[in-house]
Amino acid sequence: MKKNISILIVGVGGQGTLLTSRILGDVAMKLGYDVKMSELHGMAQRGGSVVTYVRMGEKVSSPIIEKNSSDVILAFEELEALRWLDYLKEDGILILNTQKIDPMPVIMRKAAYPSDIVEKLKAASDNMVMTDALGIAREIDNIKVVNVVMLGKLAKVLDMEKDIFIEAIRNTVPEKFLLPNLKAFDSGYN
Amino acid sequence: MKKLMIGNEAIARGAYEAGAKVATAYPGTPSTEITEYISKYDEIYSEWSPNEKVALEVAIGASFGGVRTICAMKHVGLNVAADPLFTCSYTGVNAGLVIVVADDPGMHSSQNEQDSRNYAKAAKLPMLEPSDSQECIDFVKMAFEISEGYDTPVIVKLSTRVSHSQSIVETGPRNEKEIKPFVDDFMKYVMMPAMGRKRHVVVEERMEKLSAYSDEVQINDIQYNDCSIGVITDGIAYQYCREALSESVSYLKLGMVYPLPKEKIASFASKVDKLYIVEELDPFIEEAIAVMGIKGAVGKALFPLCGELSSSIVREKILGTSSLKSSLTPSDIPVRPPVLCPGCPHRGVFYILKKLKMKVIGDIGCYTLGALPPLESMDTCVCMGASVSMTHGIEKARGREFARKVVAVIGDSTFAHSGITGLVDIAYNKGVSTVIILDNSITGMTGHQENPTTGKTIKGEPTACLDLEKLCEALGIKRVRTCDPYETKEFEKIVREETGIEAPSVIIAKRPCALLKTTVIKKPYNVDPEKCKYCKLCLKIGCPSIVDKGDGVVINTALCIGCGLCASLCPFKAISQEDDQ
């Protein structure tokens, strides 16, 4: 890898973005890259908008990804994809889970959930990959593994070696949750 | 061994490798994980202290007792611990004492963004500032050496982006330390005026020596590249500069931010054409350099005093290049603020307080989210413990009649932290305030830490459990009542009675946090569209699993944990558990 790769993972608190970035960090280590990741705890975790930054390459300085500089945005939710869209590079890849989670102002009908998100995202990015990770997770009978389905999709899109991811999942995920997570990765990858 | 670690885990590792034997803390984002990680090392005694002042005093005792000790807190926690901080600067240490403070520029999870570097100067203590996880390990080990070498507590300062960013570290073995003998030294450890005067002279001499040390130490690192631009920077700001400017400029990276290396700074300033000072928040380095008589350094004239820096800001301000295009994100998209979780016990409390049109004097914790719509039932939030004492102040300002419409709300952990003294004040000074203790059996917002009211230690071992009812009675509060806030009718009745009476009172709203492993997740509820009259009462509780569809209400069964609060409020009995239908 000559240039650093920056991956922005966005979603809603509770969707498991932190586990995704930890597995990804382990993958980067196995590939011998320098890696830095940044996450937020505390107030930001109570169902709010969450973002995790993952950067890997020969030498990484800042753990934070700036606007217009993300090679990949891995979006776990449509509205969050739109919120963080400015962080995508011009030729960056947007991987979208076509799931909608209403924020409190929408739940209370003080605001409307935008109806044209996918069109807006398509107009902004020539490299958009859409996936119904929630649907896939439902097929596996475990809606908690949406995050690892997305990870599988990411590995596929970046054409990264599957086995390294599987080893990283084994290292990171507790034994009793391993099986559905491995299935989820596989479904996302294939 | 190479590992990925967040800065906080690396601080814990550094303490372990340095042979620390005692660790104390009160949880607070972004510092909490330091002591959680330390608690996994059996070689180190660790504790959640009731507050930061106690944590630091226990740490000072442990240092005098002869073992290397680390004490961690968030930036505002250092305010609470400031009293022992300033005087342990005078006493110095026996075994090494390292105080870790984590700032929160940008206020991701804090009530202010004070710059802790000012404490190093004010308390006359050396301060180190790592910029990544490896430096967290190295600087903590170094801090212990400085502490023992110069007979001083040492502060290690972090920020959210260092605490919560992961980077690769190389771990080493633990360097076990002998317990030092307890020293009887009245002149050093008994800070009465006569001794304090002598110790102050020692402190000033120590700062002179540390100043010289700062000029020698390698962590104050000059990297000469092109000398047309020179940057003096510290902490995470260094990483932003490296990202933005790479090797196109020269750097003086300050690993020791107090005392500053004056000779290195003067020499660096003389060799570069244009000098920039890049630091988050206050112009701490910039002002010190100005006092040194170095002219032309540019800092806060370009860089913001508020919020975080970024590599984009550095690039824009120093190189004048901006990569920013016009935004693709529409400005009017709905925000997604944090919310009280489904099943949160605080929801019932705020629903009733809003219904009764109470002025709610709030405090620090998850329940501060009760200030947001639709509950919108908190009127103030200043600092830990302030709810209790401020409520008393409002009563003294506006009289007892007004006090009938005012209550304090404070969490169990926050009450143990610094609410108790406020309650002593209410009882002692003839107050009539009503204080509601939200007892959810855990420290919630920081991610579930045990506290004196939970009956468990940091390691989960059973221990003495603070009895809130007995405590309040012992403080002189005759009216103490305990109630489940989800029994809304009963809770409302109690609030009416206690605020209506001219006597101080405490209501303990007791119900465990919905996220606790011991909290039973019940079957989700559903709305019967036949019975629902769309009166919207259930929407007033702000539960994220209840959705307004415009012509009716539905429950998101993926989020609902079956707490039943909405069902208990529904006047048409339209909400019931799945099986009941």
Features:
heterodimer; A: 190 residues; alpha/beta; 6-stranded mixed β-sheet; 23% strand; B: alpha/beta; Rossmann fold; 4 domains; 7-stranded mixed β-sheet; 5-stranded parallel β-sheet; 22 strands
Can you characterise this structure?
Chain A starts with a strand and ends with a helix. Chain A contains eight helices and six strands, in the order E-H-E-E-E-H-E-H-H-E-H-H-H-H. In chain A, 39% of the residues lie in helices and 23% in strands. Chain A has one domain: Pyruvate-ferredoxin Oxidoreductase, domain 3. Chain A has a six-stranded mixed β-sheet. With 581 residues, chain B is of the alpha/beta class. Chain B folds into four domains: 2-216, Thiamin diphosphate (ThDP)-binding fold, Pyr/PP domains (Rossmann fold, 3-Layer(aba) Sandwich), CATH 3.40.50.970; 220-319, 3-Layer(aba) Sandwich (Rossmann fold), CATH 3.40.50.920; 346-510, Thiamin diphosphate (ThDP)-binding fold, Pyr/PP domains (Rossmann fold), CATH 3.40.50; 525-580, Alpha-Beta Plaits, CATH 3.30.70.20. In chain B, the strands form six sheets. Chain B has a seven-stranded mixed β-sheet, sandwiched between helices. In chain B, helix 1 (7-17) packs across helix 2 and helix 3 packs parallel to helix 5. Chains A and B meet through helix 1, strand 2, helix 2 and helix 3 of A and strand 1, strand 8, helix 11 and strand 20 of B. Strand 2 of chain A pairs antiparallel with strand 8 of chain B, so a sheet runs across the interface.
Q: What's the overall average pLDDT of chain B, rounded?
A: 96
The CATH architecture of chain A can be named as 3-Layer(aba) Sandwich
CATH class wording of chain A: Alpha Beta
The helix count of chain A comes to: 8
- Outline type of chain A: globular
Total of domains of chain B? 4
Oligomer: heterodimer
- Considering DSSP H and I runs of 4 or more, what fraction of the residues of chain A is helical? 25-40%
Termini separation of chain A comes to: 24 Å
CATH homology superfamily of chain A: Pyruvate-ferredoxin oxidoreductase, PFOR, domain III
Strand-residue proportion of chain A: 15-25%
Q: What strand line-up does the widest sheet of chain B have?
A: 3-2-4-5-7-6-12
Number of strands of chain B: 22
Gyration radius of chain A, rounded: 16 Å
Q: Which structural class do the helices and strands of chain B define?
A: alpha/beta
